[in-house]
Every structure is written in structure tokens, then in C-alpha cells.
């Protein structure tokens, strides 16, 4: 089988190219693909081990099984700053924006997700967010590091609130900072999309006549298709 490998930032420079196709035996894993990659790109160190791995836009590890046509993305550690937390208290969006503000950044873009009072024609009374907080923070950090690398932004921060939220409360803040506005806008949107799809946080909406768990979670194929059709897809394809 054949798989496609994408390399970013310092990994791209070390290998002298940004993508390679590698041939593997059926049943191969990410570890097998990396061994083949090192053989095909000898400028990479023999003990090369990527900081972050994604397969078809889902975070993976060395033991992850591969299939013909899979795309593996390898991300180095970020050079800028990533600041994430899952919190129970109210979120101050200005504080999150200030956390990524630097003299070298000409643009700071902040997204605020707020609880609304209506869903599908029914009045929402309040919401509750539940999370595996340790894992949610880990995946949040992975999303931020991936976004910094893919979009070339310098700093990102995110806060996701859990527990009971009243109408109008802020549930999620994402701030992206970059020298130029395009990268900051697109990085913020990409990060929010990734968070909504893969971070283990669940939302329950309470109505006058009951309650229901809701969310934007979807399968890997649907998630990959949505990313491919999003406004930032062309930008990523040309990097």
C-alpha cells in the first residue's frame, strides 16, 4: 500500500521537501511509515520521532494502523506560545487576547462562543458542559500546536468552560496572533472547527420540556471532508 506523508516547518526543512509518498506492506503502522520516511529522506536524523502525528486529520501515535491512501501529517514543537485550559469560572476574552499579544504581531483575532437562548425553535433555559478535563486540555493543546504549525501563527490561547452556563455566558474563547491578519483569521477558524469536532467536551441543553445532549462531533471521514471544504482549505493547500 501507499501512504502520503506531509512535513511541516523544521521537519520540512530537514527533509528538503514538504511531502513524500511511501510504500508499505499491508498492515503497516505510523512507525513503519516513519522508518521508510527516514530511509527515503536521509537528511532526517536516524532517530527521528515527530512531536505530533495526525492521520487523516485525526491525532495518532506510532502504533496507529494505516490503510492505502492515508495521509500522515508530522508536526514539530511550536516555536511560539500555546496557552490552553479547561475552566469552571467565567472566561475573560480580553485576558485571553492579551496572552497572545506581542509587539511582533500585527493581528490578534479572538473568537467567543456564547450560549444562545434558542435551538430548533425551542427556548433554551441553560446549558451544562461536561469534559474529561485532563484529556480535554491535552487535545486542546494538540489542536493549538497543530494550528500554529500549519498556519504559521506565532501564539495561540484557548479556554473552554465546563459546568453550568446561563444564556449569554461564554463557553469557548480562542485567540490567534500573527504578523498578518489573514493567518490570524484563518487559524482562529480552523482551531475552533477542530475543537468542536475532536476535543472531549459534551454539551447538554435544557429546555422547558426536557433536556438533550448535543454537539458537532462527527466521524473522521465527515470531519476531513468539512476541513477540505472550509474557507482555509485553499490556504493550507498552497503552503
Summarize the structure.
The protein contains seven helices and 14 strands.
Provide an overview of this structure.
With 239 residues, the protein is α+β, with helices and mostly antiparallel strands. It folds into 2 domains: 2-75, Ubiquitin-like (UB roll) (Roll); 81-237, Molybdopterin biosynthesis MoaE subunit (Aldehyde Oxidoreductase, domain 3, Alpha-Beta Complex). It contains 7 helices and 14 strands. The protein has helices at residues 9-15, 30-40, 93-99, 133-151, 181-198, 220-229, 233-237, and strands at 2-7, 19-23, 52-55, 58-59, 71-75, 81-87, 107-114, 118-119, 122-131, 155-161, 163-166, 170-178, 201-207, 210-214. The protein has a 5-stranded mixed sheet with strand order 2-1-5-3-4, sandwiched between helices. Strand 3 and strand 4 (58-59) form a beta hairpin. The longest helix is centred in the middle third of the chain and has 19 residues, at 133-151. The protein is globular, with a radius of gyration of 19 Å.
Question: How many separate domains?
Answer: 2
Please tell me what the overall shape is. Answer: globular
The SSE string, one letter per element, is: EHEHEEEEHEEEHEEEHEEHH
Specify the structural class.
Answer: alpha+beta
CATH topology of the largest domain: Aldehyde Oxidoreductase, domain 3
Uncertain regions spanning at least 5 consecutive residues: none
